[in-house]
Amino acid sequence: KQYFADSSQENTSTVSNDGKEIITTISTQGIRWFELKNSKGDIRIHAWDKEEIELRAQVEVRTKKKENQEIALADFQLKLEKQGEKAYVESNWEDIFSCMCSGNSKKDDIKTAEGEKVKIKELKLVYDVYLPNDIHLELSNSYAGISMPDWTGDLSLKLFKGEVKGGNVGNLTLKNNYGKAVFSNFENLNGSMFKAELFVGNGKQIDLKANYSELEVGQVEQVDLNAFQSNGHFKGVSNTLNSNFRYGKLTVEQPIKKVDMK
To answer: Which sign, positive or negative, has the C-alpha torsion 96, 100, 106, 108?
Structure first.
């Protein structure tokens, strides 16, 4: 077992030939939001009924000098922290971890707890997170995926060349650049897309800006859509469609009660 010097939070880590697994937990008491950012590694969200958040991270590290690989892997640590009503992940490699930019010459040097200087070529993290499904999520991933079950808490998602797959969700805020988002039914969906894809089921309200993108939507009540060179297909809009739609194709299978096209 390993600990951060400035925290009573306990981390358990196991090192193998394939890398390192870190397990860290925190109580959900007073927590309404959970935040996690990643790049080039999947985020897998799991729902459970325990009053705690458990994060399991699979860690892979590549160093410029191969002989430093074990030293670096042993030194790297993660822990769950709390600030106000938000839980988040912190690392002792804060420069690299905060931007996930290993390979950047300005931020790829670390100094181990033993005082050794090591140059990092790549840091890859794959997360499994277990928490109650009424906690709001703020997730960001690039060049990898996010998966999750049905979720009752609010979702704020940022994708860059990634893919998210989920079940039924409530309020969803989405920034999707060059990525693909797939959900079942939803309550409210707000956000933006650029050269991206969106596939969702039935919902109440959509307020979306889409450029060079593809949308496939079920039955909704209210749509506010600002789109440029995009294609959108809706099964139905039961109340009002407000749209500024240029240089693309917009189809709605069923009659619409009210349309305002600009």
So the answer is: positive
Q: What is the dihedral of CA 181, 185, 139, 158, to 10 degrees?
A: 40
Q: Are 166 and 47 in contact (CB under 8 A)?
A: no
pLDDT tens for 137-154 read 999 999 999 999 999 999
Identify the CA nearest to 122 among candidates 113, 110, 139, 114. Answer: 110
Cα gap 82→103, rounded to integer Å: 29
Enter the DSSP assignment of 67: G
Q: Which residues pair with 93 in a beta bridge?
A: none
Residues 6+ apart with CB under 8 A from 182: 163, 164, 165, 166, 199, 200
Task: Kindly state the tokens that stand for 116.
Answer: 């050794």
The pTM for the full model equals 0.91
Joined together, the tokens standing for residue 247 give 């240089």
H helix runs in the chain, sequence order:
69-75, 94-99
